[in-house]
Amino acid sequence: MSKYSFLTLPTILVASYILQLALPSSDGEGDKTPLPDVYKPLHDWLGWVYFLSWSLSFYPQLLLNIHRGTTLGLSPDYALYNLIGFGCYAVYTLSLSSSSSIRSSYESHHNGSSPLVSSQDVLFAIHAITLSAVGLAQVAHYDGIGTRGRQTPSRNCFVICCCIIR
């Protein structure tokens, strides 16, 4: 651990507050969020805390892989599941945030409640799938994937991923 690791949480909290002030609120004109107006700034701020915390969690592994020049110890199954999982999450958040027909279908199935997908959710999904792809690319680049590589995804992982993608 770094001697400055105690600064991580305060830095995330301050950066989140700056993002909340600098970027527009996640509220749309037709926002049906069941929160009283007094809580919406807190909701936005916590959304940025969540975005920064989860986004920053990807970097130590990616930087360690670069520093070591290998991904041994990082399961290729994990890297593949991450890519597919965050791919599904990105499709979900992008669909709910950008498609009016999907939002109206959601509302009709949920007693008129609108989907609570914020801009932070969309940005995180895009960021997560991008860094998951980088992680899987590192596995392929540094150690190879498949029969000639030093690491291979398990058969179970391959079957599960094929079923999900299909």
TrEMBL record:
Subcellular location: Endomembrane system
Keyword flag Membrane: yes
Membrane topology summary: Multi-pass membrane protein
One GO cellular component term: endomembrane system
Subcellular location, principal: membrane
Highest taxon of the lineage: Eukaryota
GO MF annotations in UniProt: L-cystine transmembrane transporter activity
Signal sequence, start to end: 1-24
Membrane-traversing stretches: 48-66, 78-102, 122-140
Keywords: Membrane, Repeat, Signal, Transmembrane, Transmembrane helix, Transport
Protein name: Uncharacterized protein
